[in-house]
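Internal QA ticket QA-208
Title: Verify multi-chain structure generation after dependency bump
Assignee: T.L.

Test input:
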Amino acid sequence: MKKIVLLFATMLAMSQAHATAPDTVTVIEQPNQVIITETPTGSLVKVIGSKEKEDYSYTYQMQHSGNDTVHTSQSTDWELNLPFMKSSNKEYHWSIVCSGLYFGAGLGTSYDLVNNSFNWGILNFASLNYNTLHGQQFSIGVGYDNKRFSLKRPNCFVMDEVTNIVGIDSYPEGTADRSSVLSVRAIQFPLQFQQFLGKKFHFTLGGTMNWNVYAKCNTHYKVNKTHYDVSYRGIKQNKLTFDVYGALSYNRIGIYCRYSPCDMFKKGYGPEIKNTWMLGVAIAL
Amino acid sequence: MKRITTIMMICMLFASTAMAQVGLNINRLFDGRYKKAAGATEIIVTGVQAREIGLTVYHSLSLTDKNQAELVEGLVVKDGVQAVDKEVEYRNGQLYYGFYTMKKSKRDNRYIFYLNQNLARKSPKNIVTLIYMEGLASPDEIKKLIRK
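Actual output:
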């Protein structure tokens, strides 16, 4: 405090003396109270009480004339930080969220005999997000994905139960209500980037590693009012596949497009179903 | 009997924290009158959360009613007379901020902080804040705590 008083008093003296060397006006040891006030016409330093005398009083006043050049520095505002005050708008760099429920239909695949395909899943059961707080977000997570491919009639999936090789055959003669579907379920590990465009729009780009934990071919048909439902398990699906995807969202509802370049079956264990395009709706992405 | 003793102890604990600012004029403002008032936010923190920031009692009151500023300022200034150390700034004749170190309560330091953000130069806000704090934290630590 003493240093501040000295400094201020010296500065005042300097401003009055213009270019002359600074002189010490006074030294007050351990003042009790220092009051510095400013008026439009001058400055006042008042010191009350000192180490030696409780009732000590000293006043230094300087009047500014019209020709004076006075340098003053106003105190800055107190930027209050209230502890324990929860702000609903407060944003954090790191977060863990559940996001991205999606449903999509196939736009096409490399395999001609696929009639249509369907895709749904939850992109992130849980993801670790890093938000730059400048409109970008990176995340890594774990989710679930399901892809279904149905064949054009009269083709159906069949599997050799010895070699576990899946092939294509025709339905028996005289069948009705026919469908033959390959279903692949995966635990997916998405890595994605999001760019926010304003408060409500954002686009997403990402890739996933799919751990295809389960695959099944199911062929269904009816002969003379008898329903047949044939399921083949033990299919040799590719355990690891990779997809890339992009999405555009408004208010966390958007459209997504997903491309799967990898073959669904291990080489030699089924038809080449790859280069699949899906398009659909994503919620809470 | 055990239960009654426990309840009595809890009541005494609450009473001791609620009355932490006893003997001060600002105590009038913490009598619960603002608990349900519109435009008022009152926060009372004791225990572990308070200890994490070097305090035993943290009691704040934020008011958005301009008319209350005069009342709060008056009480703060009255308490300020008893302060063992203070740092104040007046703007346009009104108390802009005041940081008062009061007499110790046992081993705890006691502080009163007042800020009238209506008098801010950069971006004035219609908020008057009063904080009463008790704890081992030093004045510098308190300032760090409540200043961005």
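Spot checks passed. The radius of gyration of chain B is 16 Å.
Status: verified.
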